[in-house]
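Researcher: Re-running this chain for the archive, since the previous output was lost when a drive failed. Same request as before.
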Amino acid sequence: MLTWFGRSFWQKLPRGRPPGDPTWASRHRAILGLLIAHVVVLPVYGLVQGYSLTRCLLSVSPLALHAAIAAADHLSQRVRAGAATLGVMASSAVVVSFSHGMTEAHFHFFVMLFVITLYQDWLTFLLAIGFVLFEHAIVGLLTPGDVYGHSAAVHDPVKYALIHAGYVAGAAVAAVANWRMTDRAEQSTRQLTRQLEYEVSHDPLTGALNRREFENRITDVLTRVEDSDATVVCVLDLDRFKIVNDTCGHPAGDQLLVEVCWVLSDVLAPEDTLARLGGDEFGLLIERPTVEDAVAMAETACAALTAYRFRTDDRTFSAGASIGVLPLFGQVEYVEEALQLADAALYTAKEAGRGRVHVHHQGDAELNRRQSDSIWAGALLDALHEDRIELVYQPIVPTTPTEEETGRIGEILVRLCESDGALISPGLFFPAAERYDLLPALDRRVVAKAMSLLAAHYPPDTPTNDDLYTINLAGPSIGDEAFLAFVHAQLAEHRLAPSLLCFEITETVAITNLRVARRFITELRSTGCRFALDDFGSGLSSFAYLKNLPVDFLKIDGRFVQTITHDPVDRTMVAAVNQIGHEMGLRTVAEFVEDDETLAVLREIGVDYGQGYGLGRPGLLTSWLADRRPLSGARGDDATRAAGTAAALA
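Model: Regenerated structure tokens:
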């Protein structure tokens, strides 16, 4: 029972752990300032009370000595705190003495007792209690007039010493209780601070470092002026995470991420850094004597994940991972650049077959291409935001003009207009647009701008004279329901005749998702728009799919057209495509017509139209429309037809 009571009592006491710097230093300065203030003020108070200057200076000299010791920075904290404690408690004794033992002056002891608890140290607290007991028990007996201010206490100092001891004990209990509450509050604050610091720097799911802390660690490495060791940044991405997520749900995916951290932690050395960057992407910071050793560690981590098997819901999955590695020193200066290059190396590893490590080296052609893509993607985003997308027009010309043809046909192409007015060919920025999923946004801008320009040129209820403008669409746009609604909305907004538009879809896009492509084509054709199948012949099953697509034009792949003057196989291919197209009631267009010889062969084969630099170079659509007003629409007018043909051939 006594043991339990003692343990319970002990647990309720403050722990007696002094606060760390700078809290301790600020509190000590405050107590030292209070002590110095007493050294200055008490001699004045003693003179007012009628004591001699000598007596006043002698009384405060111990206080000054303790203040000097407490101010000595070379001494330990406990020595300085002990000196300050004895000094402020002695100041209470001087106050009582100078006030002739006045009862109210004793409250100074109680106040100083609470002040000393700011140190949160049992040593200083017990020093303060001991001084009070010494002052009342010893000095009170020897010179009671200096401690007690009434005759009863002077004549019976023991009794009043015990009474004062009771008051001091009560004050001590109150001070300890206050100290304990302060201790608990500060402990809770410390715990909360540690928790917040942990949450700020760690991933809540896996417990690994988060991206922010990982970037801080990289920055620390990059700021080292001299470092004999080699450090590499690795970006790791799981190869089959989506399979687990889609098959077994997100809880299983979360558990996989946790177990991946376990596997990596078992492989990595304690000084290595592991972080979750987001999703199923992790970062490693590996420091070894040589780059080769660091890369070997990354390969070990990759092999460990390849061998690991994740089990959930009675199913087993192979996680596997690809890792991009960037040696830091001598390659980059900024953390953003480091992560960008490591990420590019990661995707190179994925494209090379996954489950492997790719190390970035200066002059790496593939990584340079990826960097170029990211630059062009940024340039394209800026151009979309600033409306610097320019449309050009290239005529599609009949190989054998006839009087029955009155309409002009041409393809609307896109160019990126730089800030200095230079036009950039799509061959430079299309790969970036495809990689960074910018093609749908580009398609929307092209369609909206083309319809706006055409609507101004062909106002509602005016003849279109069978003019036709073709616009290329990317694969992601074909399968996007929102894009289909967007086209409908643009047609309604501009009140543009749908018969003016022909949308081009590449054969590869069409056969990749035949059902979606067929639905897209069918719905827009019902409004009056027409469709062309572009690059026909590039696929392995072109003819098998053709009969399932309700298109109006067949554009023959230019790779076959370029060599038909001297390659009999390509000529046969073009002739076969042309014949099949005509059998199905389609008009055929040959791309890449560069010279008169090629045009003559196409005319002999019977291809309907040609397109290429030999028939007309692309020019600004706005200039084309400004120079060519709509035809009169009267069929059979030779002069009109001749003018139309000349315009098409310009």
